[in-house]
Here is the input.
Amino acid sequence: MKRHLRIHTGEKPFKCDICDKQFSDSGHLKNHMRIHSGEKPFKCNICDERFSQIGHLKKHMRIHTGEKPFKCDICDKQFSESGYLKNHMRIHTGEKPFKCDICDERFSQSGHLKNHMRIHTGEKPFKCDICDEQFSRSGSRKRHMRIHTGEKPFQCEACDVRFTDSSNLKKHSRIHTGEKPFKCEVCDKRFTRNDSLNIHTRIHTGEQPYKCEVCDTMFSQSGSLKSHIRIHIGQKPLKC
Here is the structure.
């Protein structure tokens, strides 16, 4: 009861001698001290990974057991940690508690906000070990590495063509399904890819963003400009 009352009083009589952080319970201070000492007394019997707190070991064990005790009441999806369930519930509630102080965009997870902030700061902490190209997200670096390794982990179930990126597989799959989710608002023509819709829309807008640097002729498509350039350089790559 004495420990419980500190919840109401806010009393924190146990203080860390190193960083002055205070705690309401001596056990919490004991756990905290392992941050400074590096002590990890709790060991996984399967993979030998060690942890500073018993709770962290319990969460880790679910990787091996496959246990997912936290269940969504709406879609029945299950999670190994309560925090994962809490993040997931925001899909259903639409809650976005994390706000960018610069552009006011909101996010459902703190990690998404952290990634977003790099747009404003220009920070690119993830570096390719082979070509030194840098990325703002670890996932972007992971996808980039497949250029060097040649890895194509995403395979089409219909024709066995493989891709380095899941989004490219998704676009490709529309060839087989016939799905055309991108619709022109002017003439209702539909397309399998968003970039194809953007190119088509220029028919209606008259936009011609590609300019010949030699004669200033404008084109709506990069391919048309490329073909036009051959007039100036005399290139004739198509042989009978």
Remarks:
- The first helix runs from residue 2 to 9.
- The mean pLDDT is 93.
- The longest strand covers residues 14-15.
